[in-house]
Structures are given as C-alpha cells and as structure tokens.
Fold this protein.
Amino acid sequence: MNTEVTKSRAVNSISIAVFVLLSGLDAGLFHGGIIHWSIAAIGALLAMFIAASIKIADQWEKAVVLRMGKFCGLRGPGPFLIVPIIDRIGTYIDQRVRVTDFNAEKTLTKDTVPVDVDAVVYWTVWDVEKAALEVRRYVEAVTYIAQTGLRDIIGRHELADLLQNREKIAEALQHTLDEHTSPWGITCQSVGIKDIVIPAALADAMSKQAQAERERQARIILGTAETEISEKFAEASRQYQDNPVALQLRGMNMLFEGLKEKGSLIIVPSSALESMNMGAIGGLAALSEKNTTSKEVSE
C-alpha cells in the first residue's frame, strides 16, 4: 500500500541564500559603525521576514496557500512569495500520475470460492483545490476505496468470469473508482489486475478437469475419424460388389505392396482367397519371387 504524502517545506535554498546575504550585509554595516545597533536588529528581522516569504514549488507541484486558516489560492510551479505570519503553505500536491498497489485477500466470489487478487491503479490529481479541501489524506482514501471496489467486483462475479475476463473486470473497477474519486478532484486513469490466486486444491481439481476435457475431445476426434473411415470402406465395397475384376486388381495391388520388402509375411483370410482368387495370385507371386532369387544366386 502506497501512502506517500507531499508535505510542506519550511525552507529552501533561495530563502537561505537571501537570509545569509542580507544578514551579512547588516552585520558588516553594524561592525563598520555605519548603522546603530537598533537599526541592525531591525535589519536582521527584515532579512528573516524576506527569507520566510520566498517559497518554491517543483514543476509537477501546486502549493496550497492558506491565509489566516482560509484558502487563499494556489501557487507554483517555480518561486513565489507569501506574507509571513498570516500566510502559510498547507501542502504541496503532486500532479503527476501515481501508481498504487492494492489487493483483496480471501475474498469470496459469487460461487463462494476464496481468492486473493492483486491489482494496481493509475491515478492523478486534476483539481488541486478539491484534493486539498474535500478529502483528508487523499492518497490513503484512494487506496481504501480501491480495495473496497475490488472486493465488491469479486463478490459479483464467478471464478470462471474472473479468470477469463480480467480486462472487462478491470475496466468496470476503473469506472467505479472514477465515480467515487471525481468529487475529490482525482481521476483514475486505468486499473490492472496483476494476479488471481486460487486455493491449491481447487487449482489441482481444475487441472484434472481440463485434462479430462482434452481426453474427451481426443476420443471424439478419434471416433469421428473411425466413422469417416468406415463410411469410405462401405462406399468402396459397393464399388467392388458388382466389379470382380476391380476387386482382383485391388487384391493384386495389396499383395504386391506387401511383397515389396524381402522377408515380409502376409496373413490372408481363407475367405479372401476364395472371393478374390488370391490363391492363384499368391502362387504366381511366390513363383516370381523364387525365380528372382535363383537368378541372383546364379549370377
């Protein structure tokens, strides 16, 4: 949690330099006998008054000036003057974009799952007067309203929605924060969900569920492939049913493919031998193989 607060500064380098210069001049005139000691004392008080009236605000800051306890105006950036004693600087407010980390621990989702969520919000002060006068410790206020909004968002969504739609949830949270902080002169530019931590047992169960789903999809794909293959075989059988010559040619091709490699063993059902006349075909193939072997030996 970032609770950085920009506080007022009592002195600055310019006021110190002016005080040293005027005090040195006053002391020199007094020791030289040019002025009386009472005039020197008045000069020292005047040097302190002038030095205290000089203030400086950095380029990214605005100084809130209060006169007798009431808001007088904004000063800066750069050097400016105030009236000592009756004026004072309430605070210096940084107008750069700030980054605040916040989280929600053990927060129940809509389906009663405890989760830890880490998030970050980018915000800036666009109205310094409102930020100084409308809210006390605005940095802490932004942090607490962000935590409250995050818990509310988690409670209105289920775990699956949180895991799958981080960007939408972050956008909804940003709009919620902007509505609450706008009256303070603060705008929330964006919100990011850094991490969502779920219980270890639930993470293991979800992993098993995902694995089971992948296996189911693989079985469906395999079954679909088997169905398509069986349909192709049925179509082929209808083509061969009325064309025995084509069936025999297919048998010869299958036998040739099987006998291309030496030492191959082919097991053919007896029904295929009768229907496709593969007995004669196999005998011719074996005789051809024997003749080829004999030629190789004789050579």
Notes: Residues 243-291 form one domain. The first strand starts at residue 54 and ends at 57. The chain has four domains: 13-91, 98-198, 200-239, 243-291.
